[in-house]
Structures are given as C-alpha cells and as structure tokens.
Amino acid sequence: IFKFLGAISVDLGQDRIKPYLPTILTPLYRELNSNYAEQDPTLKNLSQEIIELLKKLVGLEVFSLAFSSVQKQANQKRAMRKKQRALQTVANPDIAARRKLKRHKNKAETRKRKIESLRPMYKAKRHRSHALKDLAMVE
Q: Where is the signal peptide, in residue numbers (predicted)?
C-alpha cells in the first residue's frame, strides 16, 4: 500500500496531490511512530522514503503543514482514547477490574516465560485453563 501511495502521489503531480496529502501521510506517520515489538524494519524504511519523496514533490512548507496536522490529529485521538479509558474506569468499575485482572495475569505469564527462557531447567507453575470446562453444559 505504501508503494501504491508513492506511485499515486508521483502520478498526480505537485498541484493535484496537495488536497490528498494528509490522507496519504496518515498511514505513513502511524508506521513511523509505531513501537510494536514485531515491527517490520522494511516498512519503516519504505515509509521514510515515501515521506522524503513527498517532501521533494510538494515542497517543504506545504509538507510541513500537512505533516503537523496529521501529527496533531493523531495526538488528539490518542488523548481522547486515554480520556475515554479513564472515564470508563469510573463509569464501569467491573469492566475496569476485569481488564486490570487480565493485564496482571498476562504480566505474570510473561514473567514466567522470561524466567523459563533464562533458566531452562526451571519450570514455573502455569495456571490451568478451564475454558473447555466452563463451556461444558454438564456441570
């Protein structure tokens, strides 16, 4: 998709690309600022190349305005999600408690996995999943 965005921007040219610049920059910005563990470095390099291409194509001033608007919009969305999560904690404490328990459980499992990788002889006790048992109608 990034290659497609680059090709379309080159094909449209300097004047016709300007209205679509924020739309094109949004996924590129998201890829550049993502901090996932399984991030593909080729995607990051490709998005950087396309950003450089767009910068040369439309000029630094127009690009900077569009990029800052995309950046501002992303920050606003992030802040809004954080605010909604905080409000949900107050409005629905049971859902928040479940989320917190799940997060703590995942943290404990991660810690056990890390210990096992560092010391292969050590086997941490794992919590048995009763998922199938809970689904059964016989109980």
A: none
Cα 93 to Cα 105: distance, rounded to the nearest angstrom: 18
* Nearby residues of 127 by Cβ (< 8 Å), 6 or more positions away: 105, 109
Structure tokens at 58: 């439309």
Ramachandran category for residue 20: left, alpha or beta (phi over 0 → left; psi -120 to 50 → alpha): alpha
Tokens of 126: 């794992």
C-alpha–C-alpha distance, residues 21 and 28, integer Å:
11
97 part of a folded domain = yes
User: Mean pLDDT across the chain, nearest whole number?
Assistant: 86
| 125, part of any domain | no
Share of the chain above pLDDT 70, in %: 86
d(CA 113, CA 100) in angstroms, rounded, equals 20
The whole-angstrom separation of Cα 42 and Cα 58 is 24
Amino acid 84: pLDDT = 92
Residue 40 backbone phi and psi in degrees, to 5: -85, 120
Nearest-angstrom CA–CA distance, 14 and 79: 33
pLDDT given at position 139: 47
Domain count, the chain: 1
Name the residue range of residue 58's domain: 1-120
